Amino acid sequence: MEISIINYGMNNLYSVQNACNNIGINSIITDDHEVILNSKIAILPGVGAFREAIQNIKNKNLDKSIYDFISTGKPFFGVCLGMQLLFDESAEFGSTQGLGIIKGKVSRFDSNVKKKLIVPHVGWNKVSFNNNNYKNSVMKNNLNKEFMYFVHSYYVTPQSKDIELTSTTYQDTTYCSSIITENVTAFQFHPEKSGNNGIKIFNEIKKLL
Amino acid sequence: MIFPRIIARLDIKGPNLVKGIHLEGLRVLGSPSQFANKYFIDGADELFYQDVVASLYNRNSILEFIRNTAKTISIPLTVGGGIREISDISNALEAGADKVAINTAAINNPNIIKEASRIFGSSTIVATVETIESENKTYLAYTDNGREYTGIDIFEWCKKLEDLGAGEIMITSIDRDGTGTGCDTYLIEKIRDLISVPLIAHGGIGVTKHIEQAFLSGANAVAIASIIHYGALFDNEFIDNETIEGNKNFVSNFKKFKSFGPIDIKKIKNELKDIVPIRDK
Question: For a designed S-S bond to A194, which of A198, B27, B84, B275 qualifies (C-beta 3.0 to 4.6 A apart)?
Answer without folding.
Answer: A198
